[in-house]
Each structure stands twice: as C-alpha cells, then as structure tokens.
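Please decode residue identities from the backbone states below.
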C-alpha cells in the first residue's frame, strides 16, 4: 500500500493528528535552528556573508536608446 493510501485510510482525527504533528515538527525546527547553529558554532561570520554576497548575481540596468 502506498503512503498516501495509508494516510487516507486513517480516521479523520488520525489525519488531523498527523497534520498537526507535522506542523508542530516544522515550527519547532524553525524555532530551534538558530539556537542549534550557535551551539555547534555553525553561525556564519561576516567573512562568510561577504563571500556569499560576491557569488550572488547582480542585475545591472543599462539604458537603451528609444529612437531605433
């Protein structure tokens, strides 16, 4: 049986519980991500941010003659 079929065979309250559980897991992950980065020393430094900024493509607007 596929995962989707198994999910659909759950009763309404079961599907509701699975949905809220996944939502809670995501919210907790987003909330704890910054704390975990600081704890393990993975927070980016200013040099890392500057190096990443160099890699991001920039958009340069070039004026064009409208008379053509």
């Amino acid at each position: 049986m596929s995962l989707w079929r198994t999910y659909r065979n759950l009763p309404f309250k079961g599907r509701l519980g699975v949905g809220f559980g996944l939502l809670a897991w995501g919210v907790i992950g987003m909330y704890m991500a910054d704390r975990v980065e600081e704890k393990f020393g993975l927070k980016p430094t200013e040099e890392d941010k500057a190096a990443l900024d160099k890699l991001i493509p920039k958009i340069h607007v070039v004026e064009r003659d409208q008379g053509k």
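Observation: Residues 19 and 25 are 10 Å apart (CA to CA).
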